[in-house]
Amino acid sequence: MTEIRVLIVEDEPLIAEDIADSLTKNDYRVAGIAYSSEKALDLLYTRQPDIAILDINIKGSMTGIDLGHIINEKYKIPFVFLTSFGDKATVNEAIQTMPYGYVLKPFSDMELYSSLEVALKRFGSEHKAAFPALEAINAELHGALTIKEYEVLQDLCKGLNNKQISELQFISVNTVKSHVRQILTKLDAPNRTSVMHWVSEIGK
């Protein structure tokens, strides 16, 4: 799975399916749909998504805001709130989790897409240290990265999606997917955000 994987946490099935359709149309992969906070925790652990979309008022023992705190503590991936609640109290409480976006329902495909793109790029920027040299990275690996894989890795760590990388590198999207797959395998990383963490630690 080389596409950016998104976890959807939404307890209204029709809305969840609308979100999933919107993501698929924009070349994201749905890592899973959680209709409750308990299922969300399960999918965070088992599916290891790159980013999460969180409703605030959801079924289960926790709110989306509670999940935001847990994601920050344990999973360290970006998340965006997608909610019907725009009142000052809710927004202020949500801000405490340092979300990467806050989208109000009803949403448009473009609004959701742009929010996720901004979130991923901001996440990449925040985790970007001085980018380590290819030699430094390969010194940590059993299987060395090629020069092209190294170039794709740099773009991936900027939060770029497959299409953006293909345009920048003048290669096909399928070739980008192949390179990303090799990068994940060689770094033994479950997802793109793990790659960003790994590289930022090497770059320190």
Summarize the model shown.
By secondary structure, this protein is of the alpha/beta class. Helix content is 54%, strand content 11%.
Task: Name the descriptors.
5-stranded parallel β-sheet; 2 domains; 5 strands; 204 residues; globular; Arc Repressor Mutant, subunit A; 11% strand; Rossmann fold; alpha/beta
SSE layout:
Elements: E1 5-9, H1 13-25, E2 29-34, H2 37-47, E3 51-54, H3 64-75, E4 79-83, H4 88-95, E5 102-104, H5 109-126, H6 134-138, H7 147-156, H8 162-169, H9 173-187, H10 192-202
Parallel strand pairs: 1-2, 1-3, 3-4, 4-5
Helix pairs in contact: 2-3, 7-9, 8-9
For the biggest sheet, the summary is: 5 strands, parallel
- Using only C-alpha atoms, the radius of gyration works out to 17 Å
Order of helices and strands: EHEHEHEHEHHHHHH
Query: Which regions have little confidence, pLDDT < 50, spanning 5+ residues?
Result: none
The overall pLDDT average reads 93
The residue fraction in helices comes out at 40-55%
Helical run tally: 10
The name of the CATH architecture of the largest domain is: 3-Layer(aba) Sandwich
For the largest sheet, list the strands in their spatial order.
2-1-3-4-5
Total number of beta strands: 5
